[in-house]
What we know:
Layout: H1 6-16, H2 21-28, H3 32-39, H4 47-57, H5 61-64, H6 68-104, H7 110-132, H8 135-145, H9 153-185
Amino acid sequence: MNQLNLSKQIKTHREREGLSQEELAEKLFVSRQTISNWENDRTYPDIDSLLLLSNQFGISLDELVKGDVETMNRKLAAQHRTTWHMLGGLFLAGILVGPGLYFFDNWGLLFFMIPAGWSLLNAIKIERWKYDHRLRTYEEILVYEKGQPVPRNAQQSTKSRLIVPITTIVLAVILISLTLLSMWLFGVL
């Protein structure tokens, strides 16, 4: 898998301009440690910092993240596939519990537990990817690359705080409904 090359770009352009990490940090209103983290590929700058970097170095955002956009698209596509795996596992868990209990008694719970476990593992994988690969930043960059307005961080954090609990509640209601319907249809409720 291609590694993101922004870290190399930042270091190369910073050194070309004869700036220390501390000096660049002051110009971008971040800490020296933040610059170090970017250059060592431990964290990825948010869209605002990327725009400040491109202005500081006198290059376009496209030049700065060149090569990274394709990698970002692949990682976002992988996250979407994992989301479908998670949803598929939830659907199977809800649908199969009734027939499983009907035909296999208590062993039929495996027909619920296996897809539910698969779904849970994929949910954990999604959250880990979001954190590790800074997917929100990737989405912001891709939106910016298309010439669309980038949502501001304050709006996103408010949305994110609401979307996660709402999504969790909706998925739980769907799973419980499917499970009860399946159990009722097979007369094990």
